[in-house]
Amino acid sequence: MESAKKSKTPMSTTTKLDKDEQGKSIDQKLYRSMIGSLLYLTASRPDILFSVCLCARFQACPKESHLHAVKRIFKYLAYTPTLGLWYPRKSSFNLHTYSDADFGGYKVDRKSTTGTCQFLGNMLISWFSKKQNSVALSTTEAEYIAAGSCCAQVMWMKQQLLDYGFIFEKVPIRCDNTSAIFLGKNPVHHSRTKHIDIRYHFIKDHIEKGDIELVFVPTEKQVADIFTKPLDEQTFSKFRLDLGLCEID
């Protein structure tokens, strides 16, 4: 790996991993150890979180195609060995979040991927990338489920910060889907949304209580996009910088 060609992104935009049942099997123990090391690193390198989590889904029966994807992550890390999260001393202390979803992006079962991140001012303090538990039937549903997961994280963080004397009202959850925003603000249950799991509708209660608010953000400024799918080099570099990752000597 030391002499391998470096990669500027952890995963190519053309990569579509599946079970690859016809592919050549590899050493499961080796694959799992590589995934374990990378998962440990995601605690300080959120830029590789999506790629690592995607590869981690194939630990039961890893193939060569999965190993190639993991090796690319290591090549990217070799290209960016000095990247780290920067927490400026004089940053503001406003809690705000981003929520996004990749509709049906996982080829195996067509479940969507939720990606969220939470900031205090310009400081990234929490990030999340996970395959949704149910199959979403529309982009609106996938985005709404993601916003619900983000809301749950925000409520937990608000309670933790309250213990230190910090009170936040109407924490903005930035979403790039207007239909999901309207669904969260509309107290009427339409027939088209009844199939959405009830546990995600608690977001409406917190909107009405003034705990959070759904705010529209253009897709090109949706930082959480980096946690839902592979991005091209330019977009990936921009969002990586927005997360607060920079060269640390």
TrEMBL record:
SUPFAM superfamilies: DNA/RNA polymerases. Residues 1-20 are annotated as: Disordered. InterPro entries: DNA/RNA_pol_sf. It comes from the Eukaryota. This is RVT_2 domain-containing protein. It comes from Cephalotus follicularis.
